[in-house]
Amino acid sequence: MSKLLISVVGPTAIGKTKLAISLAQHYRTEILSADSRQFFKEMTIGTAVPSLAELSAAKHHFIQHKSIKDAFSVGDFERDGIALLNHLFKNQSIVIMVGGSGLYVDAITKGMDKFPIVDSEIREQLNQEFKESGIVSLQKKLEQLDGSYYKTVDLNNPHRLIRALEICLGTGKPYTSFLNKPKKARDFKTITVGLKADRPHIYDAINRRVDTMMALGLEEEAKALFPNRALNALQTVGYKELFTYFDGIWSYETAVSEIKKNTRRFAKRQLTWFKKNEQILWVDSNTNREHQLESIAEHVNQAVAFS
C-alpha cells in the first residue's frame, strides 16, 4: 500500500490546525507539526500552540518538545521528522503534516541541502556580533559575502543570517553555492493542501488573533522570557516587539500594533513561498469543512491505493 503524507500549509491564522485535525480524524491517523515556532515548550500563547482540546482530538508530534535553550535546526527537524514518519508509516498509510514554516515543510517533503561542518566558534562569534552590534551588522556582512542570498533571505531573521554567514566564513564559499543540489528521493508520496482566503480576511484574522493573544497573557509570557531574549528561538514576531516595549523604546500600543503589522508581513512571505509550488491543491478557508474534505479526498484517492 502506498504511503501518503498530506501536508497542510498556508498563512498564519487561516485555520490550518483545525483542518489538519479534521483530516487526522477522517483518516484515523496522526499529525506531524512543521511549525518551527511551536517546537518550544516555553512559548505557548505567542506561537498559537494548539489548545488542549485540539491536542486531544488528534495525536500531535513535535509540539513543545524542545526548550528555547536547545539547539534544534531545520536539519535536525528533517532527521527527526523522517524518522517519525518511517515509524508512523509502519501502521498508517496516511499521515498529516501541518505548518506554515515553508523551509521546514520542504525539509520533510523535498529534503534539505547539505552543508559542510564548520567550526562552532564561528557561530558563537556571529551571535556575539548580533548581540553587540545588532542585525544590521549581519545584513551588511551577508551582502558582501553572498549578494545573491542577501536578495532572497528574510533580512529580519537573525537565525537565517547567522546560518548563512557561518557557512560563508567557514568554507570561504557563498552560502548559495551549496543550494539546490540533487537530493535523496522520499519513499512516500505527498499531497500539499493550501488554505487560501482573500487578503482582507487574512489580515482581519491576524488582527483578531493578536488581540486574543494579548487578552490571554502574551505580555506576561514574553516578560518571563525577556532574560533570554538573545536566544534564536525568541527572534520571532510577538516576542521581539514586546521586548522593545519592555526596553522602554515603544509604548504598549505601539508594540501591539507592530506585532499585527509584522505578522501580516510574515503571512505575505508565507504566501509568496507556497505560491512557488504549482502542485498545491488550494482550498478556500471559508468553504464548509465537508466540502473541503471531499475535495481533498478526490486527490487522495488518485494518489494512494486503498484496500
UniProtKB/TrEMBL annotation:
SUPFAM superfamilies: P-loop containing nucleoside triphosphate hydrolases (SSF52540). Pfam families: IPPT. InterPro entries: Dimethylallyltransferase, IPT, P-loop_NTPase. Substrate binds at T12, A13, I14, G15, K16, T17. Its EC number is 2.5.1.75. ATP binds at G10, P11, T12, A13, I14, G15, K16, T17. GO terms for molecular function: tRNA dimethylallyltransferase activity. The record marks S101, R123 as: Interaction with substrate tRNA. Signal peptide: none annotated. Residues 35-38 are annotated as: Interaction with substrate tRNA. Its cofactor is Mg(2+). It comes from the Bacteria. Catalyzes the transfer of a dimethylallyl group onto the adenine at position 37 in tRNAs that read codons beginning with uridine, leading to the formation of N6-(dimethylallyl)adenosine (i(6)A). Monomer. This is tRNA dimethylallyltransferase. The gene is miaA.
